[in-house]
Amino acid sequence: MTEVLRRGRASLALSFFAQGVAFALLVTRIPAIQDRYGISDALLPVFLAAVPILAGVGSVATERLVKRIPPSRLLRWSQPVVLLALLGVGAGDRMVVLGSALALFGLAVGALDASMNMLGVSLQRAYGRSIMLSFHAVYSLGGILGASLAWAGAHWHLELWVSYLPVVLVLLPAVVVGSRWYVDGRDGEGAGREAVGAAGPVEGGGGVVFKALLPLCLVMTFAYIGDSTVSNWSAKYLQDVLGSSEQLATVPYNVYMVTTLLGRALGDLGVRRFGAVAVVRVGALVAAAGFAVVAVAPGAWAGMGGFTLVGLGLCVLVPQTFAAAGRLFPGASDAAVARLNVFNYVGFLVGSPLVGALGDAWSYRGAMAVPMVLVLVTFVYARSFAPQPDRYGGGHERPRTADVGRGSNGV
C-alpha cells in the first residue's frame, strides 16, 4: 500500500468528518435559525425542502462536471463553500441572506457529497478491500460532535454565529490543507486509476444505464426514508405515543447516531469476512426488526431499543450502496455515484412528510410499518451488492468464488 493512498485516505476521512460536523450544526439548530429570521411555521418547510432539492441539483451538475474536472478538485472547492455558507446562515439577519446562504449550502453539499463518495469508491478499488464504511463512520463521528456543539450553543443561549465561527475557523484551514492529498481514480498507476472503457452496463457513449443502477437507487431512497424517520419523528414518537418525558425523548436520536458510528466502524470487517451481500441482508433485517419493535413498543424504553436496532441495521446500507455502484460501473463510477447520490435527497424529502401524513391520518404506530417494509425490500435487491469479477486489473475488489461467472453487472 503506497504512502499516496494512505495520505489520500486520511485526507478524505477528514473531509467526511468536517461535513458531518457542518451538517449536524445546521439541522440541529433549525429552531434557533427559525427564531433568528422570524420564519413562520408555514414557511419553514419551504426552506427545509429547498436544501435537499438544491443538493440534488448540485449532484446532477457534478455528474456532468467530473467529465472535465477531477472529483478531487470539486471537493477541494465545494467543502470551503459549505463551511462559509454555514457561517452565512448564522451571521445574517435578513431573509434574503438566509435564502442565499441556504441555496449556496444546498448546491455545494450536492457537489460535496457526490465528490466525496466518488473518491471513496476509487480509493476502495485501489485498496482492493472494503474501506467505504470507515469514511461514513467518520462522518457519523463528525455528526455526533456537531450535534454536541449545537446542544452546547443552545444550552448557553449563544448566537448562531458564535457557535459556528470557531468551527469554521478550525475546519476551513484543515480541509484546505488536507485537500492537497486527495487521490482521484485517475491519478496514476497504483493510486486507483479507473480502467477507461472497462466493461460494464454502460451506454454507447460511456454513460451509466439507469435500469442497471435502479435497484441501488431504490435501496438508497429507502435507507434515507428510514433515516429521516428516526431523525424527524423519534422524539415526537417517544413523547406523544409512548409517553416518555421531554428529556428522554431527545435520547433516541443520540443513541441512533452512536450505534450508527459503531456499526460503520465495524462494518468493513464484516464485509471483508462475510461479503457485502450478507452484510446488507443482515442490516436490512436488523433495521426492519427495529422498526417493528418501535411500532409495537409498550413503553419508551422498548421504543428506544427499537431505534437502536434501526441504527445498527441502516448504518451499513448507504456506504455499501455507493461501493456497489462503483463495482457495477467500473469504467463510469463517478457518474454512477453522482446519479445515485440524488436519491439520498429523494429519500430525505419523501420520508419525513410520508410518515407525518400517515401518522396524522392513521396512527404513528402504523406509520412506522412503512419504513419497515421499505427497508425489507433491500433484502430483495441484495444481489446487486455482489463483488464484480476482477477481469481488468488495476485494483478491482476480488470476488468470492461463488460470485465468479454471474455476469458483469451482478444484478
TrEMBL record:
<keyword id="KW-1133">Transmembrane helix</keyword>
<feature type="transmembrane region" description="Helical">
    <location>
        <begin position="160"/>
        <end position="183"/>
    </location>
</feature>
<dbReference type="InterPro" id="IPR011701">
    <property type="entry name" value="MFS"/>
</dbReference>
<feature type="transmembrane region" description="Helical">
    <location>
        <begin position="337"/>
        <end position="356"/>
    </location>
</feature>
<feature type="transmembrane region" description="Helical">
    <location>
        <begin position="74"/>
        <end position="91"/>
    </location>
</feature>
<feature type="transmembrane region" description="Helical">
    <location>
        <begin position="97"/>
        <end position="119"/>
    </location>
</feature>
<dbReference type="InterPro" id="IPR051788">
    <property type="entry name" value="MFS_Transporter"/>
</dbReference>
<dbReference type="InterPro" id="IPR036259">
    <property type="entry name" value="MFS_trans_sf"/>
</dbReference>
<feature type="compositionally biased region" description="Basic and acidic residues">
    <location>
        <begin position="393"/>
        <end position="403"/>
    </location>
</feature>
<feature type="transmembrane region" description="Helical">
    <location>
        <begin position="42"/>
        <end position="62"/>
    </location>
</feature>
<feature type="transmembrane region" description="Helical">
    <location>
        <begin position="274"/>
        <end position="297"/>
    </location>
</feature>
<dbReference type="Pfam" id="PF07690">
    <property type="entry name" value="MFS_1"/>
</dbReference>
<feature type="transmembrane region" description="Helical">
    <location>
        <begin position="303"/>
        <end position="325"/>
    </location>
</feature>
<dbReference type="InterPro" id="IPR020846">
    <property type="entry name" value="MFS_dom"/>
</dbReference>
<protein>
    <submittedName>
        <fullName>MFS transporter</fullName>
    </submittedName>
</protein>
<feature type="transmembrane region" description="Helical">
    <location>
        <begin position="131"/>
        <end position="154"/>
    </location>
</feature>
<feature type="transmembrane region" description="Helical">
    <location>
        <begin position="362"/>
        <end position="382"/>
    </location>
</feature>
<feature type="transmembrane region" description="Helical">
    <location>
        <begin position="12"/>
        <end position="30"/>
    </location>
</feature>
<keyword id="KW-0472">Membrane</keyword>
<feature type="domain" description="Major facilitator superfamily (MFS) profile">
    <location>
        <begin position="213"/>
        <end position="411"/>
    </location>
</feature>
<feature type="region of interest" description="Disordered">
    <location>
        <begin position="391"/>
        <end position="411"/>
    </location>
</feature>
<keyword id="KW-0812">Transmembrane</keyword>
